[in-house]
């Protein structure tokens, strides 16, 4: 079983203590007071983490935060690789998903399969408004007339609510996916949600992800085999055409490339 490199265990322990202070300050609306401490230790851990394998990054996260860290996944190819790695590093890991009520049937079937294969219960996070309530308040097909607002209601705010319970979250983003993600570090402070963000495969390519899935016989969404390299809500995702960017099927026909879960607080507020 993978463990975090010994050279960073002390900074990791200090990092956790600082984060606990940050959590109490955040509850008192004073999180800014501990940011300098976080930054000092964060830089040391960040630099070291860039040379770690994904498994070592995951081991560090689990050893540092225990039950206060969870994987967030929409169960794309990248997410499945991270989930499988986590199962080999730490058997009892937490995993949650944002269920927008608009997921593909194939995604729901994969969720059930994951729970059976890994012996876990996936925590489902839902929006405050049901689809029917959202239509009454905001009108029909909000994903067409204002996709940013739809994503905010069904993804961003539910995620914010979930992350308020944690000290760290684990994602499966890669730097080469979008311009927003190209600056992601393997371990970083999430300014938008005010907790540690762990991106174990930030430096991987799509080829590496698929090589891992095949080598370890990891289940994946069958939509990938039907030209859906990126899978989100059924209303806002289509198959890509030959020669198109892998994310061209997301919010097709618009300039939108992100749902708002990743990126700085400033950038996120600008997309609402």
Quickly describe the structure:
The protein has 272 residues and is α/β, with parallel strands linked by helices. The protein has helices spanning 9-27, 35-49, 54-65, 77-89, 105-118, 131-138, 142-145, 147-163, 206-215, 265-270, and strands at 69-72, 95-99, 123-126, 168-170, 187-190, 195-198.
How would you describe the overall organization of this protein?
There is one protein chain. The chain contains 10 helices and 6 strands. It is an alpha/beta fold and 272 residues long. The chain has a single domain, classed as HUPs (Rossmann fold), CATH 3.40.50.620. Strands 3-2-1-4-6-5 form a 6-stranded mixed beta sheet, with helices on both faces. Helix 1 packs across helix 3. The longest helix has 19 residues, at 9-27. The chain is globular and about 45 Å long. The model is unreliable at 265-272 (pLDDT under 50).
Unreliable runs: 265-272
Order of helices and strands: HHHEHEHEHHHEEEHH
Average pLDDT metric: 85
Q: Provide the spatial order of strands within the biggest beta sheet.
A: 3-2-1-4-6-5
Q: What would you call the shape?
A: globular
CATH topology: Rossmann fold
End-to-end distance, in Å?
Answer: 42 Å
**CATH homologous superfamily (4th level) name:** HUPs
Q: Please give the CATH architecture.
A: 3-Layer(aba) Sandwich
How many β strands by DSSP?
6
- Number of distinct helices: 10
- Percent of residues in helical segments? 40-55%
For the record, the count of structural domains works out to: 1
Provide the structure class.
alpha/beta
Report the top-level CATH class. Alpha Beta
Global Rg:
18 Å
